[in-house]
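Hello Y.,

Per our agreement to keep a running log of every chain we model this quarter, I'm adding this entry. I've kept the format consistent with earlier entries: sequence first, then predicted structure.
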Amino acid sequence: MLNIIEINNFNAPELDVYARYTEAQLLNKDRLEDGLFIAESPKVIGRALDAGYIPISVLVEKKQMEENEETQEVLARFENTGTSIFIAEFDVLTQLTGFKLTRGMLCALKRRPLEDFRKLCEGKNRIAILEDVMNPTNVGAIFRSAAAMHMDAVLLTSGCSNPLYRRASRVSMGTVFQIPWTFIQDDKERRCDRKEIWPVQAIENLKALGYKTAALALTDDSVSIDDPQLMSEEKLAVILGTEGDGLMQETIKACDYTVKIPMSHGVDSLNVAAASAVAFWQLRK
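Predicted structure for the entry above:
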């Protein structure tokens, strides 16, 4: 039996987490153990549940609940769980910014503690590292490519958009719940005590774990993405930079390889999400 609660007023407190909480409030930096995130659409929500994330509540358009088979299949997973299923008519829900993109369904879930990046890398041969990729659409697209092209994990620097940001997880089609990921940070529990360990210390840590590091950047000594020695490396970390500026010089200097994707017609670079798909395909294991 589903715990269904009908909502008729957009200002109902039950909608606060969906309609009025900011991303900062959801993340809850002062109490990370109480952090939440919002997943959109039945497919994305289903993949979050498959990954073991714990749901707090669900918000669904009444018509979708009654008529959409994919929505009904996901809702069936909440039978006899006690999870609150808030339902509302479309005219109530259209007041939520971007609701038309959700395919009629949202779910609030608990965040998890982040795993140490060195621990996450154990037993993995191909990892991707994102340096200050701030656009959540690009982060989501990179995760989708990583999942499709056999990457084993994704690491993110502190300047990256969070993969659980609504747009990032939606664009990824839920693959942020399938590919192991974490942020590169030291192990201090309090944020105010943490030191920035990217790039030098973190790259040294990765090399100690047996990884060769490959920075995607255009330099005079860049090797082609299909370089035989590069492709034959047993353990490889592929590093992609922020939109526009690319990788920091300090990062490039610390890497074993600087790698370029050969291009034609005077094109000098690709969007970071497009570049990730090419690189992951070529360097997959």
